[in-house]
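User: Last request for today: this protein with flavin-adenine dinucleotide, please.
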Amino acid sequence: MKREPRHVVIAGGGITGLSAAFYLRKLCRERDIPLRLTVVERAQTLGGKIRTLRRDGHVIERGPDSFLARKTAILDLTRELGLEPELVPTRPEAGVSYILRGGELHRMPGGSMLGIPTKLKPFLQSGLVSPAGKARAALDLILPSRKESGDESLGAFFRRRLGDEVTETLVEPILAGIYSGDLDRLSLQATYPMFHEVERRYRSVIRGLKRGGLQQTAQPNAAPPLPEHLRRSLFLSYKDGLSALVEKLENALSDASLVSGEEIVRVSSSPEGLTLEAASGTAYRADAAVLAVPAFALGKLLPNLPAAQAFARTPYVSVANVVFGRALPLRRFGVRDPAPGRPFHHGMHLDFVEVGPYRTGRPHAHPVLRRTGGRPGVDVAGRRNDHRRREAGIAGTDGNPGGAGSGGADQVDAVDAPV
Ligand SMILES: Cc1cc2nc3c(=O)[nH]c(=O)nc-3n(C[C@H](O)[C@H](O)[C@H](O)COP(=O)(O)OP(=O)(O)OC[C@H]3O[C@@H](n4cnc5c(N)ncnc54)[C@H](O)[C@@H]3O)c2cc1C
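Assistant: Here's the final one, the structure of the complex with flavin-adenine dinucleotide:
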């Protein structure tokens, strides 16, 4: 007897929704379960935060720019989609990081790993940290490890090990910048549990990192090894940018119904199943649903579910991404407005600037400089045009946007999220 297919509706066509659809279909095929799949996406295009801009031979990321090579789930998906030959490592000449302090760009001390100094000489020579701050960081080598069990904030961890100055000057711009969050409120276990493990094994974080502690504490990986040219890279992307993954998923899901430009506004259940109501008035009836939308959107979709209201209170930070795709005189770049508290400053007190050539992808005709920034309490998305102007001014010598020799931003994106 022919079985009726189960209808699963996925709200949200970002990487979470699309990969959920991909694996759900795979599982149902393996178990011979007839399935009808619908993905409903609010935006006109799929991919969510992943958006690659391909222009004038440049591959520029408007959202995420790479993924951690140790994350096996995305490598598995890459292989299943036949995208492994497209993988590219971090370009060796890229990834130079600077910290903006006192109106000057300071190169990150050589040997720093995620902002943590691991080489003595470049750290001692760096003008970024005072002699007292350097001496305090060195105490990490002799301080005992933490006795209490349980989680602590990233800030508490690094302040305890390396002192306030190194934490705020070197670590915070990078680690807090990645989450656009407050180092003193981000959970160590939820973000970088491997640092806890490094302390447990080596006591000293500096010594642990020097001895390859981060790699050794990584989860054992049963996946086949990556090709030789990719193995040393901490981050990976695809030759044509991260959107290549979204495009492959879209192709692989050709038998699913992919609806874009449609917002789900409410989900309700009855003995007959689920109903996902869209703003257009369409009602999607489903046997099961996956809500792959940002946490804050869940409260609205499930007004009668107390757990969803807790998700709705999850604080989000809006971030902006500004790209300069032309030759810019580095010395004149980014030093106009170092005041703390301004948007575009990565980290709480300082700035973190990564200077091109771009981290992954094809070599560019010009250096590409990308700044991503946002911080708790600043509505970057709501002030997009301000930023376009300010960024243009920052890049020039005379503060005249678009004036001779200045470099107005070529692409400004803002991700809108409640703060
Ligand atoms: C600027 C920036 C840089 C980043 N850099 C990195 C990086 O380098 N590496 C990394 O690993 N991660 C990075 N991240 C994080 C990464 O982009 C996200 O974790 C990931 O893309 C989230 O995917 P998602 O599918 O869960 O959510 P999203 O991409 O947010 O997708 C959710 C989708 O749901 C849709 N939606 C929302 N509400 C509804 C509704 N009611 N009905 C229908 N659809 C709805 C949205 O339009 C969206 O398309 C970065 C994020 C940003 C913003």
